[in-house]
Amino acid sequence: MKQALMEVMRMNRICRMVLVTCLGSFILVIFYFQSMLHPVIRRNPFGMDICCRKGSRSPLQELYNPTQLELSNTAILHQIRRDQVTDTCRANSMSSRKRRVLTPNDLKHLVVDEDHEMIYCYVPKVACTNWKRVMMVLTGRGKYSDPMEIPANEAHISSNLKTLNQYNIPEINHRLKSYMKFLFVREPFERLVSAYRNKFTQKYNTSFHKRYGTKIVRRQRKNATLEALRKGDDVKFEEFVAYLIDPHTQREEPFNEHWQTVYSLCHPCHIHYDLIGKYETLEEDSNYILQLAGVGSYLKFPTYAKSTRTTDEMTTEFFQNISSEHQTQLYEVYKLDFLMFNYSVPSYLKLE
């Protein structure tokens, strides 16, 4: 009797185990079919529900293997710009490849967008404030929706964007190979005048006056007053140019990013950029990039009329008082930027 009771209890345990197993399998099957019917949803950077990106085309794929069979005029234009950089690097290999290996410090200007697999090398005085705003929208995962709602000073806080130098070597190499890389350039001397006007003629830029203005006045101005030596807030453009071409300046430390050459900031002879936007075609090039990223339908690059923008006419005026000797020396400093990005020698220059 006791043995029969134990046998019944054992059969009950077996039945319960089978029941639990069947029930668990049934639940998994239900979940599987639900997931097939309703793919996992994630929140996109703009607060809109979209399906996960897995399986979608990356910007790099869309650029080099477009869904449309015929290449657009825009795609052809960017291919020409890429070829121009490649040809210039090859023709000037001695000067453009002084170092064959980049250090992490060389990558601090490359902003990474993991969600859209893009890398943007920012160049000061080439709409970088607005592009940083756009990158904050793209990487913010719903925190921002309108780039122009982000204050300019917040766009320049380094912790708001992740740069490539924050990754380890294998991660850096993977992203350089797999992500779409782009930068924006501007006529070199127009960018230089823009930097001078912004950093040395605006009274609020006291940090630049102290850091660079006092040094420029001390080195380049004869019989400078004590006030000028102390404040450094009245640097003339001629003095600024003399400072830039002074061999002592170039030996002392790298240029500040606002007047550093593009090839030194973004290293286009070491890093293959897939897209090279230009300040002169800023809106078209920017929106083309956003289109490739798959966000062009609901995110546009911000545009607004800026009456204080440095123009070609302004640049011509600033160079009128620069001697031909100094113009020639300055052109040599920025020569690779002119050649690489297909900017002709300005007609106002009097090169020796």
Which features does this protein show?
two-stranded antiparallel ribbon; four-stranded mixed β-sheet; 51% helix; 352 residues; alpha/beta; single chain; globular
What does this structure look like?
Its EC number is 2.8.2.-. There is one protein chain. With 352 residues, the protein is α/β, with parallel strands linked by helices. It has helices at residues 2-37, 59-64, 73-91, 93-96, 128-139, 152-155, 169-178, 188-200, 206-220, 226-231, 237-245, 247-252, 262-266, 282-292, 312-319, 324-340; strands at 41-43, 49-51, 110-113, 118-121, 180-185, 275-278. Strand 1 (41-43) and strand 2 form a beta hairpin. Helix 8 (188-200) crosses helix 15 and helix 11 (237-245) packs across helix 16 (324-340). The protein is globular and about 65 Å long. The termini are far apart. The relative contact order is 0.13.
Q: Gyration radius, to the nearest Å? A: 28 Å
Average the pLDDT over all residues and give the rounded result: 85
Briefly note the structural class of the backbone. alpha/beta
Distance between the termini: 117 Å
Series of H and E elements = HEEHHHEEHHHEHHHHHHEHHH
Total helices: the number is 16
For the largest beta sheet, what order do the strands appear in spatially?
Answer: 3-4-5-6
Q: Name the shape in a single word.
A: globular
Ranges where pLDDT stays below 50 over 5 or more residues in a row are 1-6, 18-55
Main beta-sheet annotation: 4 strands, mixed
How large a portion of the residues is in β-strands, by DSSP E? 5-15%
What's the count of strands?
6
Percent in helix: 40-55%
Protein name: Carbohydrate sulfotransferase
Membrane topology: Single-pass type II membrane protein
InterPro entries: Carb_sulfotrans_8-10, Sulfotransferase
GO molecular function: sulfotransferase activity
